[in-house]
């Protein structure tokens, strides 16, 4: 067992990362979330009961596994408390198990309000409307409220009053909406913090201590590679760096970058929100994929756009993340399709182009067709049990991307996994 493993999404998010983190967690001493915010939605089925986690690492269901939220995460304390309550109602105790970095930048209700006002105008880019973008803007502009600021009342009052004044200027001059009340924002924040204070600490030192004592760490990414703020389909991206290489910054523990990287990809492609999507299907086939895959956002409930597997994009993600292995999820969703396709190239004005092209929104996908297996994969327990056509599809993915497929998900439940 390697001392650490980084798990990242290779598409536009929603690849099924939660289930895979949950599966691997029992082999690790700690699981750490290193970027994003409560715009993530990781779905896990535990004894047929559905859980959706937004901030707390998906390893929370494994006993004797410590869970960490690193300083690269934008933290909504209200969302965190709601999640903790839901888990504790199911008998999962978080005190002593969960630790959150004191250096996290906080996402306040005013961030969500500003996000919603922006999305209501004609320049909407399809965010989750939860305030992630405005909160990351504050972090970059050096006006964030950090968790440790709540330990110093004078500093907090100074920073928070400036922040409320900044957003009230926007509210008045741009959005023509009701201003924020400083007293209300302050009271809400203090009340929430007092309930969550016991979970805050120094994540970096604790991870280093686990590592130096021979423990191993699993790093859980949120969203997906193609939503990375620098390397994704900008501006239709999230506000954080979603790549495996950002784990050292997001966790504060640079030794974590020297690890294996497992990339998660669906057997087809989906996207939520606006932005280019070369393999998107606007026909009955796309509707069938959506229906069979139950493709609705775990965070927002929005229907996901669906299309065939984009191997050009997947190969791009594999290179960016230096993937050492692939996991293909939702292979069973394609069980009933007579023909299955995968995009192997793009064409713009008669010329081939790469995923990085600024003309991606004009790209025409070039497909390779595969004969479907037209049977259920439900009872397949190992790779040899898979139909010949399913194995041919998977082996072509391996060959094209240049990364071995080590794990295949053939159903929604925890046990629906095939090791290769």
From TrEMBL:
<comment type="similarity">
    <text>Belongs to the adenylosuccinate synthetase family.</text>
</comment>
<dbReference type="InterPro" id="IPR042110">
    <property type="entry name" value="Adenylosuccinate_synth_dom2"/>
</dbReference>
<feature type="binding site">
    <location>
        <begin position="409"/>
        <end position="411"/>
    </location>
    <ligand>
        <name>GTP</name>
    </ligand>
</feature>
<feature type="binding site">
    <location>
        <position position="304"/>
    </location>
    <ligand>
        <name>GTP</name>
    </ligand>
</feature>
<feature type="binding site">
    <location>
        <begin position="41"/>
        <end position="43"/>
    </location>
    <ligand>
        <name>GTP</name>
    </ligand>
</feature>
<comment type="subunit">
    <text>Homodimer.</text>
</comment>
<feature type="binding site">
    <location>
        <position position="142"/>
    </location>
    <ligand>
        <name>IMP</name>
    </ligand>
</feature>
<dbReference type="GO" id="GO:0000287">
    <property type="term" value="F:magnesium ion binding"/>
</dbReference>
<feature type="binding site">
    <location>
        <begin position="13"/>
        <end position="19"/>
    </location>
    <ligand>
        <name>GTP</name>
    </ligand>
</feature>
<dbReference type="InterPro" id="IPR033128">
    <property type="entry name" value="Adenylosuccin_syn_Lys_AS"/>
</dbReference>
<dbReference type="InterPro" id="IPR042109">
    <property type="entry name" value="Adenylosuccinate_synth_dom1"/>
</dbReference>
<dbReference type="GO" id="GO:0005525">
    <property type="term" value="F:GTP binding"/>
</dbReference>
<keyword id="KW-0658">Purine biosynthesis</keyword>
<feature type="binding site" description="in other chain">
    <location>
        <begin position="14"/>
        <end position="17"/>
    </location>
    <ligand>
        <name>IMP</name>
    </ligand>
</feature>
<feature type="binding site" description="in other chain">
    <location>
        <position position="223"/>
    </location>
    <ligand>
        <name>IMP</name>
    </ligand>
</feature>
<feature type="active site" description="Proton acceptor">
    <location>
        <position position="14"/>
    </location>
</feature>
<feature type="active site">
    <location>
        <position position="139"/>
    </location>
</feature>
<dbReference type="Pfam" id="PF00709">
    <property type="entry name" value="Adenylsucc_synt"/>
</dbReference>
<feature type="binding site" description="in other chain">
    <location>
        <position position="238"/>
    </location>
    <ligand>
        <name>IMP</name>
    </ligand>
</feature>
<comment type="pathway">
    <text>Purine metabolism; AMP biosynthesis via de novo pathway; AMP from IMP: step 1/2.</text>
</comment>
<dbReference type="InterPro" id="IPR001114">
    <property type="entry name" value="Adenylosuccinate_synthetase"/>
</dbReference>
<dbReference type="InterPro" id="IPR042111">
    <property type="entry name" value="Adenylosuccinate_synth_dom3"/>
</dbReference>
<feature type="binding site">
    <location>
        <begin position="298"/>
        <end position="304"/>
    </location>
    <ligand>
        <name>substrate</name>
    </ligand>
</feature>
<dbReference type="GO" id="GO:0005737">
    <property type="term" value="C:cytoplasm"/>
</dbReference>
<keyword id="KW-0547">Nucleotide-binding</keyword>
<feature type="active site" description="Proton donor">
    <location>
        <position position="42"/>
    </location>
</feature>
<dbReference type="InterPro" id="IPR027417">
    <property type="entry name" value="P-loop_NTPase"/>
</dbReference>
<feature type="binding site">
    <location>
        <begin position="330"/>
        <end position="332"/>
    </location>
    <ligand>
        <name>GTP</name>
    </ligand>
</feature>
<keyword id="KW-0963">Cytoplasm</keyword>
<feature type="binding site" description="in other chain">
    <location>
        <begin position="39"/>
        <end position="42"/>
    </location>
    <ligand>
        <name>IMP</name>
    </ligand>
</feature>
<keyword id="KW-0342">GTP-binding</keyword>
<dbReference type="GO" id="GO:0044208">
    <property type="term" value="P:'de novo' AMP biosynthetic process"/>
</dbReference>
<keyword id="KW-0436">Ligase</keyword>
<feature type="binding site">
    <location>
        <position position="41"/>
    </location>
    <ligand>
        <name>Mg(2+)</name>
    </ligand>
</feature>
<feature type="binding site">
    <location>
        <position position="14"/>
    </location>
    <ligand>
        <name>Mg(2+)</name>
    </ligand>
</feature>
<feature type="binding site" description="in other chain">
    <location>
        <position position="302"/>
    </location>
    <ligand>
        <name>IMP</name>
    </ligand>
</feature>
<keyword id="KW-0460">Magnesium</keyword>
<dbReference type="InterPro" id="IPR018220">
    <property type="entry name" value="Adenylosuccin_syn_GTP-bd"/>
</dbReference>
<keyword id="KW-0479">Metal-binding</keyword>
<dbReference type="GO" id="GO:0004019">
    <property type="term" value="F:adenylosuccinate synthase activity"/>
</dbReference>
<feature type="binding site" description="in other chain">
    <location>
        <position position="128"/>
    </location>
    <ligand>
        <name>IMP</name>
    </ligand>
</feature>
<dbReference type="GO" id="GO:0046040">
    <property type="term" value="P:IMP metabolic process"/>
</dbReference>
